[in-house]
Structure formats: C-alpha cells, structure tokens
Amino acid sequence: MEKIIWAFIVGGAICVIGQIMMDVFRLTPAHTMSTLVVAGAILSGLGLYEPLVKFAGAGATVPISNFGNALLKGALEELNEHGAIGVLIGIFKLTSAGISSAIIFGFIASIIFKPKG
C-alpha cells in the first residue's frame, strides 16, 4: 500500500512540474514534453532515475520523463555491445514497442471516432 502512495506522489509531482512549465513559463505542450524527456535522460545519465523507479514504481515509469530514461538506457546498453552504431540501434530497440503501440492505437482511434474540426 505504501508503494502505491509513493507512486501517486512521485507521478503527481512530475505532472505538477509539467503543468507549472505550461502555466507559469508559458511553454507549449510540445516544449514541456520535450523538456521532461530530456530531464529524464539527464537524470538517467546521472544515475538518479533508476533509484527513483525502484522507489516509486509506476509513479516514475508512466510519465513521459521515463521515455528519456528508456532512450538513454537503450542507447548505452547497445553502445557497450555494438559500438557507435549501437547508439541508434539501442534507441529504437528499447522504445519501439511503445512507439508502435501509440501509432497503431492512434490510427485505430482515428478510424473509430470522428475528429472535431
């Protein structure tokens, strides 16, 4: 039960940071998402994101900042295994399932629902 509470608090804190970026600093959603992805990659590079994932579970893996963590993690794993070309391989290898799912489900949603506009 305690893990659920911490997941809620950490995930909510990440979302609050994103909302503050849009409301106070007047950043667009695209700039906010990009900043959170880069922040996740930087925290991962400093070795701080994995302890956060172990502590908060889904509170750290569900927000967009985990995408930056996953990109860097995959790139570094493949860099060690395949050298410089591994950076590109690792980025796509580790994140391809999530990206593919977003594209497929977005396409299905566009067929089922009529967009306003």
From TrEMBL:
Q: InterPro entries from the xrefs?
A: Spore_V_AE (IPR014204), SpoVA (IPR005562)
What Pfam families does this protein's entry cite? SpoVAC_SpoVAEB
Please list every transmembrane segment annotated in the UniProt record, as residue ranges. 6-25, 32-49, 84-113
Q: Which UniProt keywords apply?
A: Membrane, Transmembrane, Transmembrane helix
| Alphabetized PANTHER family for the sequence | STAGE V SPORULATION PROTEIN AC-RELATED, STAGE V SPORULATION PROTEIN AEB
The identity of this protein, by name, is Stage V sporulation protein AE
Q: State the organism of origin.
A: Lutispora thermophila DSM 19022
User: Lineage in the entry?
Assistant: Bacteria, Bacillati, Bacillota, Clostridia, Lutisporales
